[in-house]
Design brief:
22% of the residues lie in helices and 35% in strands. The chain contains 5 helices and 16 strands. It is globular. The N and C termini lie close together (12 Å).
């Protein structure tokens, strides 16, 4: 069973539907106790880091999520679900994350340009990713594949070894995906990334 955490801050139904389309048993659950009975856990996230981490803690999800990770079971973070794995974010002030991956979440600089045109923030739409280090999420995924992003802040990882994929937007090459043991995450949205996203979800669902 794949448990998709419902802490009122995620694109939940589309994630659930993608896994079900691929033949995996998936459930959206607002009950922290359901994490203990799951083989795999997905932590989605839409909105601000501040609100997401508040809801995650207030809902009682942190302790069972940590127990799931410590047990060696696969965990997938998506968008702000990836950002919360880091030490802290500067969005709307300084906010402490889960501290599972060393690094900070920072905003894209204003005034970036490409080919003489000003780039918008948020970074929104299709962009290609460069595969950096091995991750089971990207088995069978070609380098420079295009995926879908929606974000104004990005993860700056301290350890380059955890960066599974990167992406360039303007002058910034940022972390598009991380892998640290059984912890995997993407800044982009697999559920919006068509065939590549489904392949990534399949790879996660197939993990032992």
């Amino acid at each position: 069973m794949i448990n998709i955490i419902d802490y009122e801050m995620g694109n939940l139904r589309s994630v659930e539907k993608a896994f079900e389309t691929l033949g995996f048993a998936a459930r959206v659950s607002a009950d922290p106790k359901d994490i203990a009975t799951a083989e795999k856990v997905v932590l989605p996230g839409v909105g601000s880091f501040r609100d997401c981490i508040h809801n995650l803690r207030a809902g009682g999800f942190v302790e069972p999520l940590m127990a799931h990770i410590e047990a060696g079971k696969p965990m997938l973070g998506i968008c702000v679900g990836m950002q919360m794995l880091f030490d802290e974010s500067e969005e709307f002030g300084r906010h402490e994350g889960l501290g599972l991956i060393p690094g900070r979440v920072v905003r894209f600089p204003s005034g970036m340009e490409e080919d003489g045109e000003r780039l918008k923030v948020p970074h929104m739409g299709w962009n290609d990713i460069s595969l950096r280090s091995p991750s089971p999420l990207f088995a069978g995924v070609e380098d420079n594949s295009f995926v879908y992003f929606v974000h104004s802040y990005y993860c700056a990882a301290q350890d380059p070894e955890v960066v599974a994929a990167s992406c360039r937007y303007g002058e910034v090459e940022f972390c598009a995906s991380v892998r640290h043991g059984n912890i995997m995450a993407t800044q982009f949205h697999p559920e919006k990334s068509q065939s590549i996203g489904l392949k990534i979800f399949k790879n996660f669902g197939d993990l032992p």
